[in-house]
Amino acid sequence: MTSRQNLVGATGGRPWDVSLPSAIVSGSTRGDRRSPLHAIRRFSCLIVLASCTTPTDRPITLHLTNTGSEPLQCRLMFGHWVDRDLGRLAPGEGTDIAMMQQTTDGALFILRGDGQRRMMIETINCGRAGDWMESFGQVDLAPARADRPGTIEANCAAPAGSGRVMCPVIGLTP
Q: Are 104 and 142 in the same domain?
């Protein structure tokens, strides 16, 4: 190999040091694994193979309960600063949230109204109804993403007096 071919893509400030396209192409057709075209061909094959598989998404129900003695205001937080009000939960009251889970990575989502686009769920935040920003706590959905449950049980409660709402570890059932 000449010194000119060792500088694939590098000019060293001199345009005459650029490798010739024929040298790059011939390297990939000879099976040279260091060739950029060889890497592109391998990556293209992986993309084609990945697109042939269609993993099925799984339905999941999340049951959220207010186990405290004060009303809570809860919000479902999606990516890109979008949220959905889940309403006010009185003490002892609960609500069910139907969602889906990607089998590939465990991500949780809800389909938009058009049924075509996924709204990826980041978290659920619950806070005191009158002091939400200063008191909200978060439901940790990481264990559900790591597992493939059929039902998620979560509960939140405001501590007596002041402080942030506490949402202990969620329960997962198959």
A: yes
